[in-house]
Amino acid sequence: MSARQSPLRRTLAGGLSVHPIGIGAWALGGPDHNLGLPMGWSTADDAASRRGLETAYKLGANLIDTADVYGHGHSERVIGDFVATVPRDTVVLSSKVGYHRGTARHAYLPTAMRRQLETSLENLRTDRLDIYFFHNADFGPDDRYPEAAVAQMRDFQRQGLVTAVGMRGPHRHATERVTVAKDQRGDKYARFAYLAEQIRPDYLAARFNALPPPPAASRPDIFALAASLGASVLINKPLAQGLLTGKYNPDQPPAFAPGDHRLRKAWFTPEALKIIQDGLAPLRERFGSPDPRRPAVLPATGRQRRRPRRLHPARTGHREPHRGRHPAHHQRARLRP
Question: Which residue, among 28, 3, 38, 12, has the nearest Cα to 324 in the 3D structure?
Answer without folding.
Answer: 38
